[in-house]
Amino acid sequence: MSARAAGVWLWVYLVTDDIVREAERSEQVATLRNIGEEFPNDLDNYFERMILRVPKPNHEMAQNFLVVVEELQILPLTHV
Description:
Elements: H1 3-24, H2 29-38, H3 43-52, H4 59-71
Helix pairs in contact: 1-2, 3-4
């Protein structure tokens, strides 16, 4: 599976998870429909939205998380 396809499956999982969570809280169908319509179209925007929902006292932790996600790269192995 390519990395691009993996991102699509993660996006589908996250949308589905949000809808199921709200359905378990007995939300109305209109609310569930809005979740699907308002869900960001890509993972970067989803994670940004998720971070913006973090309570203000935890913003520094959330900003650190964004930096790690943005900069995370596999480091090359070198011979010692």
